[in-house]
Amino acid sequence: MTVPIKNDRAAWLHGPSAQCSQLPAAVKLPLRLVLLGAPGVGKGTQAELLHERLGPCHLSTGDVFRAASGRSACEQSPAMAAALAYMSRGELVPDATVWEMVKERAGCLRCHGGFILDGFPRTLLQAESLRTLMEKEKITLNAVVDYELPFAEVVSRISGRRTCRTCKSVFHVSQRPPQKEGVCDHCEGPLFQREDDRKEAVSVRLQTYNRSTAPLIDFYKKMGLLVSVPAMGSPDDIYERTVELLKSDLIH
Ligand code: ADP
Q1: What is the pLDDT of residues 110-130, one digit of tens each?
Q2: Structure pTM?
């Protein structure tokens, strides 16, 4: 299998007026996935591996907010500035703001290369909005992957996580270290610890996950889309498990 070239996801990160560096190759049956799981469970790492090895873009709502946080205050809309304040406290951004942002990026959901949604939907209202939009666009989800991990391991993963400031790739100081300390393997950008990975914000995020996002597991189970994946082990082990558990006819 040829390794797809990493896309810069410009249209997703910066909005529909930006152009992606690399349009994903058109495939007959594009893979369209949602990844669920507590913060720190490794969704971003798995989304990246799925992108690198299978091609669909990694669409993370958290990455859109982080990309906006790198802009100057006058370049940020008032809604975005308010969203970033929620994020730094570890709270969910209001549904209306998140939905506005996703809706204007609907082109990424229609993309002929498919997609891997990470961090969206995060509430039942967001899941309903996504379902309505996809029905209207006549596109369907292939599966919703729920990553399961004990609480103590979640906390350890979050505290060791480092993110690339430039291309947003995710590393872990001990479990997935970069080849050169503090430097991204993909683009040589600087690695940093996210503000919301601080201790105070982490406990808020975990409580919020249990209250607002965990109910989505049942929502997607009832739709017959849920695939539960134990998230213990190395990123490669979890990736192999994910691909095995997804029906073989989804992978091209
Ligand atoms: P993690 O999954 O590790 O919590 P993300 O990068 O997905 O990290 O999200 C970081 C933060 O961005 C969240 O804590 C929240 O404040 C905000 N956010 C991202 N996606 C959503 C969403 N779908 N709804 C509400 N807030 C969101």
Answers
A1: 999 999 999 999 999 999 999
A2: 0.87
